Amino acid sequence: MAWKILCTVALQHNFFSTTNSGPELDFVPSVETQTVMQSVGMLSRVDKNRILLSYDDEKEEILLSCIPMDTQQLEFIFQVYAQDLYFGLYSESSSAEEAPYYSNIKKNRKKNTAEEDDIFLTRCAGDQALAIRERAGNHARYPVQPAILNFVISITKETYKEPKEYLIHCASRKTYWKYYLLGELADHEAEIIDLKGEINFQNAGHQFPFPGRTAMVFYSTEPIPLEERPNRQFQLRQSGNNGNKVLIKRLPNASIENLARDTLKGEQVNVSEIYINY
Fold first, then answer.
1. pTM to 2 decimals?
2. Which of 90, 130, 212, 236 gives the lowest tally of CB atoms within 10 Å of its CB?
């Protein structure tokens, strides 16, 4: 007996610093997929944010016999659940009610900007997504928690011997960074400078984040993707006649613990609140 790799599927999330790291995931097969895997003697091995599917070469004929004659494609359907309780905080929210569906089947596929190569599974649309949803079903293991995404991998008699590595792209939530300058800093004429020259900040005047406490507030002029290990180099400097005097050499970066909603230019937006008290 020898085990042969059929494919691997991994979630590539912008929040994490490397493609090999990611959130803890649970990959749950549909009933029909689980039946096929059991009959073929397939194994699935999950390593954090990826799943590897392999089969017993002694049962290769059984695997081939499971490929439907009409479609000539055998499909493996999985629902993916996040084990990380913070996943919904650092991930870009979807406007759709249902979790997105991804596929390697090249039919009615909706391209995303990050999915320029066949290594990326692409998002299904229309009838194809609906068909996968009906076949995926619901799982008693997660009666309340919704899946974060679903995917289907299709193999044929011509392709099953070529192990494939697939990626699903997931974007980070973007937030406006909101700095509260408290204490003596609230009375300074100050400005926030990005040493990399990428992000600008706007002085929004004074606000009262706590009873009896005044803060000078700065907003980033554009939303910034959340990161596991952010390395933004923002500096607080004296403005006005004493310009270029450094007040704080390196301002702390945003984290997922201090997310909030705020109104900017008449619209509700996500903000990351950062409090500086000197």
1. 0.84
2. 212
